[in-house]
Structures are given as C-alpha cells and as structure tokens.
Amino acid sequence: MGNLIQPKILKGFRDFLPEQEILRTGLQEKVIKVFRSYGFVPIDTPVLEYSEILLRKSNGETEKQVFRFEDNGGRDVALRFDLTVPFARFTAEHKDELYFPFKRYHIAKVWRGEKPQAGRYREFVQCDFDIVGSDSPSSDFEILSLMKASLKEIGVENVTIKVNHRGIFNRFLAKLQVQEKSEDILRTVDKLAKVGVDAVVQELTEICGSEENAKLILDYIQKKSSFTETLSHIEEMAGGKAEDSERMAKIYSMMQETGIADSFELDPSITRGLDYYTGIVYETFLNDLPSIGSVCSGGRYDNLAGLYMKDRVPGVGASIGLDRLIAGLEQLGITEKKGSYVDVEIFNTDDSLCVEYQKLAGLLRAKGYSVEVFPEAKKIVQQYGVAEKKGIKWGIMMSAEQCASGKFLLKNLQTRETVDCTVEEFNI
Questions:
Q1: Is the Cβ–Cβ distance between 104 and 133 less than 8 Å?
Q2: What is the pTM of this model?
Q3: 280-286 and 296-300 strand pairing
Q4: Which of 103, 348, 365, 410 has an alpha carbon within 20 to 30 A of 170's alpha carbon?
C-alpha cells in the first residue's frame, strides 16, 4: 500500500463531477442552438500550436501566461491561450476552402498560467463566435445581438454589455500626439477598474510625459448619462465626426430598432488590453455580481489574420467565458442542478425479470424517454438512494404477474404517489 500514488490535480485545474458537467454541457447546448439560429457553423483546432503562431502578435504579459515547452521532436510549442489566434491561423491556412463572410463558433478548452482565483482558472472552456470576411456595422451588431441572445437563452438577462470603439480612441491619442504609445496607454487604461484613478494617472503621466495629457485621457474615458451623449463627447475630443463614430451611431440605431439597447452602454474606459483589436470592443457584466468581471468580451480585429496571409480578412467576434459565467451563476443561486439525464428508473426487484426490464426500457426509449434499468436486484432502499442522488423523478416497479398483463407500477419518487400504467398510457 505504501507504493500508492496520491490522487491529486494541479493548482488551477479541476475535475468535473456529473452534476457540474451536466450543467456546463447544458449551457453549451443552449448557446449552440442560438449560434445556429444566426447561421454560425462549428470548427475545431489543435490544442497545441507552434509558439510563433500564438505569440507573434502578443505582449510580454501574454507570454508570461502561456504554457510553452519543447516537445520530443525539439519543436517550440505552446498550449493555446485563447481561440481567436488559432482561428486567425485557421483562416489563413484554409482560406481557399472557406466562403466569406464566414461565421464560426468554437467551444473548447484553453490554458493560461495565471494566478488562480474565484471564477478564474488555468484551464477553462471558452465559447467563441466570429464573423470574418465582412467589415460592416451589421457584422459588428450581429455579434452584439448574438451575445445578448445567447445569455438570454441560458437565463442571464440582467446584464450590461459595455462597448467602445478603439478607432475613436486612437484618433484622440493622435490629437494628443501620443499615438505611438497607444498600446501602453490602452493597457494602462484597461487597469482602471483594478488599480484606481490615481494609479492610472501616475502611470499615464509617465507614459505620455505630461500630466495634462494624462488628465485629458481620464476625461475622455468618463462616460456620460446616455449612449448618445457619451458618443458626442468622445467624438468631439477625438476631433469630430469620422467613420468610426458614425459606425457606432449606426450600431446603436440597430440596437434601438431591435429592442435590445437597454442592455448596452457606451463606456470609453473599455479598451481591451490585447493589441490585435482595431475597432469596436466590448465586455459583459452581471449586474447582480459585477465583481466577478466580464463574462463575455471581444471586438473587431481587422488585421489579425494578416499575420499569416497577405490578403486582408476583416473579422469581429466575442468569447463567452463559460466557467467564469457558471461560477457567477452559482454564486447568484440561479443554476439548475441535475445528477443525470434519466427520466425514469426501472427498479430491479427480481433478477429473473431482467429481460422484461430491458424490453420495457427499449419500448419507453422508443417513445422518446431517457430510461435506465438498475442492473441487479439490490435492496429497494439502496436503489431508491441511487435514484435520489441522480435526481431521477420517476421510478417503475414490475412483478412477474404485471409482466404477464403488460402493466407496471409508475411511482413519483418525490411525492411517493403510485399508479398502474401500460406502455401505451405512459406519459410523464
């Protein structure tokens, strides 16, 4: 016994028991239904990529988070840290096999070597949906609409989706003559909620070489009382109307006409630290639990695929952090716990009737029910206990005499009520 290995997992990684995995896969099935209703199709990519593919357009912070190593063949490889960069590589590699605009969804695990904390893990599932091959306000809006519809489908309606446009911000920085430092400024502004105003002003002053410019940047990112008022404010600070601000106005009109505008807020402080975003960006917060952070984010990344191909392929997309979202839903107490998919358990009270039990199970499955037969004639209290742990509502018991008459006893395991039943009469 001294040679036994202690069962344990790495910090930041998790096992999922059936109740947890049923919840997670159930949410995935619901959002997939919505994705398909918008015309999106599934793809998949390898979990391992060449490091140069994943890291060529990244900053130092990203590299620190990547699980990177040399494989047995001496290749420099890394686990994907998101699904967007692999998708850019995918688009370049298969451009002649795809049609454009191409609308995909991809639900898979990604890995980041960051410090684990509440709702944040080193291995987690991302749920991405993107449109590539279209640079239009309609595509931008469709992603936003799909975000709202997907969250609604899984029962999350009290949300605020904060949007911004990097193009307007870049024009503003150009006006201040600090555009060459835009990446550092963007990452600093992105820290505002975490470190506070004073720390951001100090860091911006160091970057811009001017406290006046730092304060102007802080003024720019302060949202006003309405979407349109905020848009007018940042448009004016950026130098007036342009394609980027007019696009935001058009997207907002689409929100209003489709009745979802109340869930969206123009927030100039939302910049998304990743430097491949070039247009609209957005983050989604649970109004009842904002502390957990964004549960769905993304933006337009027109130049990303250009790292791997000469042709320019514009793109826009978003990612739902399913694990973080589930953690938030569990904290709010609005998740439905299920221990199995079984509708009815056929209890085994006589091993000699195993053939009849399986025959009945087959007939009920043919009617569309999920049915399980208890495999051996254990004490009925033990069989009840297993069914209870699985959350099964209905049970069937059948004697030899009932088999001969084509009847069985149907029992509601929650109320303990029973009724004689036949296959033809079965309806739960």
A1: no
A2: 0.88
A3: antiparallel
A4: 103
CB 170 within 8 A of CB 182: yes
Q: Which residue has the tokens 């590589």?
A: 89
- Residue 69, beta-bridge partner list: 77
pLDDT 10s digits, 146-163: 999 999 999 898 999 999
Query: Helix (H, G, I), strand (E, B), or coil: what is residue 70?
Result: strand
CA atoms within 13 A of residue 78's CA, in its CB half-sphere: 23
- Residue 102's beta-bridge partner residues? 132
* Average pLDDT along the chain: 92
Angle between helices 18-37 and 137-153 (to 10 degrees): 140
61: which DSSP letter? Answer: H
Tell the residue number behind the tokens 């070597």, with chain if given.
113
Judge whether 241 and 259 are in contact, CB under 8 Å. no
Q: What is the 3-state secondary structure (H, E, C) of 79-142?
A: ECCCCHHHHHHHHHHCCCCCCCCEEEEEEEEEECCCCCECCECCEEEEEEEEEECCCCHHHHHH
pLDDT of residue 57: 63
Residue pair 251/144 in contact (Cβ under 8 Å)? The answer is yes
Helix (H, G, I), strand (E, B) or coil at 391: coil
Task: Give the CA distances from residue 133 to residues 86, 100, 186, 300, 316, in Å, rounded to whole numbers and listed in that order.
Answer: 16, 5, 26, 12, 9
H helical segments located in 268-422: 322-332, 354-366, 380-390, 400-405
